[in-house]
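Anyone? Bumping this.
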Amino acid sequence: MKLLDTFNTEPHITFEQQNKVGILLMNLGTPERPTPESLSPYLRRFLSDRRVVELPGFLWKPLLRFAVIPLRAKHVAENYGRVWLNEGSPLKVFTERQCEGLRQRLPDNIYIEYAMSYSEPFASQALAKLKANGVGRVLVLPLYPQYAASSTGAAVDKVLNVLLKQRNQMSLRTVSRFYDHEGYIKALAAQIRNYRAEHGAGEMLMFSFHGIPQMQHDKGDPYPHECRKTAQLVAAELGLGEQDYTVSFQSQFGKGKWLKPSTQDLFVSLPKKDKIKKLDVVCPGFVSDCLETMEEIAIAGREEFFANGGEQFHYIPCLNDHPLWLDALADLAKDNLQSWVSYSL
Ligand SMILES: C=CC1=C(C)c2cc3[nH]c(cc4nc(cc5[nH]c(cc1n2)c(C)c5CCC(=O)O)C(CCC(=O)O)=C4C)c(C)c3C=C
Ligand SMILES: [Fe+2]
Ligand SMILES: [Fe+2]
């Protein structure tokens, strides 16, 4: 009877048939096409997640449906159009390359898939694929170096929701953060060093991270501390002093208080007040280039900086499929697979 069908009916499988190890990379999600029709369901899923917007449903849901989504879908679709790649949305293209890069670096008996929190492939689809291959032990690796409840927490929720339905539950491990992982820090430093060697260094390096509402941090989300620590470690690796770099938070959504300083405010005040005319910007909170880096920073941010007297603006791309980063990702996976898989040293 459907009413009683709370848990999945699954085939009889012994642990020996279901003991393989898998890795599930997780990222945020992105529309299939840069159109309002494709954006609406994605934005609806994303912005109705209570991890992301913590407002009572009876207030937020009608606002979201009748005002936020119709207005936002149209204007954000145009922004996606400016950064769309031949193969699709940058976020999806780079996540797929990272998944493939990890497969190349780990033994074939480790099954690797990726899933998105708010678009296909969903965690349910990726986990079903892993289960069908005999995977019973899964390492969940959200591709967010700094933990935030609205990114990492929300991604892990999607996996847990699938397990809530499983009768023969998979074993789970999660990587909640890697903001200070040596390989990640060294890959970032190499990316910045090489970019500056090729294009010249600006007067200041800006580390711009995605923002979160200040209220979420006040209630215990450690995110900004981890962002600042990443910046500090990369700066030390590059031999930069405190006057050589700045940390800021971008992509504010809505009218509430978000983490400060805001990247957008600095694009005005750095050239105008602080006389910084040559700026380099890197976004270490994103391991893949996406709308928020390619449009908001590299296009709109550059325009704003120049409109306020800036003279040189270099956007340093995310790690994407940089071999050092893929090596770091493989190391991170191996560290967290200890005792599930043994490696010859
Ligand atoms: C309350 C709203 C939002 C919170 C909190 C938030 C946190 C957060 N987001 C990312 C990473 C990404 N966000 C991206 C896009 C994006 N983010 C929001 C809102 C919040 N994010 C919206 C509405 C959007 C969609 C675009 C828009 O309408 O402006 C993306 C890019 C996706 C892509 O397809 O390219 C990423 C990546 C993190 C890491 C984070 C918390 C730390
Ligand atoms: Fe976001
Ligand atoms: Fe704090």
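Late reply, but here is one note on the structure posted above: Residues 57-83 form the longest helix (27 residues).
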